[in-house]
Design goal:
- The chain has two domains: about 1-20 and about 60-220, no CATH class; about 230-280, Alpha-Beta Plaits.
- The protein contains 16 helices and two strands.
- It has helices at about 1-20, 30, 60-70, 75-90, 95, 100-110, 120-125, 130-145, 155-160, 160-175, 175-180, 185-205, 205-210, 215-220, 240-245, 265-270; strands at about 230, 275-280.
- The protein has a two-stranded antiparallel sheet with strand order 1-2.
- It starts with a helix and ends with a strand.
Length: about 280
Amino acid sequence: MNSVKKQNAIRKTVQALWGLVTNAHLIGFLTGKIYQGPLKRFCVPGMNCYACPAAIMSCPIGALQAVLGQKKPRFAFYVLGFLSFVGIMVGRFICGWLCLFGLIQELLYMVPVPKVTVKEKIDKILRLAKYFFLFGICIFAVVFIRDKFGLSAPYFCKYICPIGMLEGGIPLLMLNKAMRAAAGFLYVWKFILLIVIIVLSMIINRPFCKYICPLGAFYSLFQKVSFLKISVDKDACINCGDCAKICKMQVDPAHNPNSMECIRCGECINICSKGALKFNGR
């Protein structure tokens, strides 16, 4: 168990450091201005709001919608190519090791309040929702729902994403008097959604990752074919169930080590007393 705690601490440290590196424009929190330098042309592999005053790179989901939402829609070669490359290399490893919002959810889950286990049948249905947000909202709606000028809004970022409110909306509103005066129903709506996600994160482990995140949905499509995988030594495995008990995504690694829901945090590998689970490149 000590090895699990040590590995968990290392992973959280990596997530925090990555969050700091990709949000290094800290002066933005003093000036209320968004960084617009050359690095903003590139995407980070995880969710990170473009509008965060400290963000030095772009969110891939926001970038995808921006390209598709232009007056003359273009195929998002760079964004989809970049995300596909990441997915083929490591699958949802990004969710477990680099996503700052994933870290925030895990820290919220540590708050000592009663926890909730979503019933299996309901859970399976809810997990399909993130694919609706990916294909229905981030792609289909952006491509086909347009205003009179032929432009489309980044619907997921604008109406749903709690990361945008946490990292961008709240800081910018606090720093800009004009924005505070202009804040209306949309701001209130997204603030309520953020509060709901925060509360859910205290009682359910990583609810945004399980049920909402379109980026996690995209990476999950590569789980079975990515170079980084988790392998099971069937001869060593004694089916004790320890790996399934510790999994924050409710996966049974012994029987489905490369599930589309696995974020490859590695806790199942560290808790296995027989060494039956391990990371391996294909």
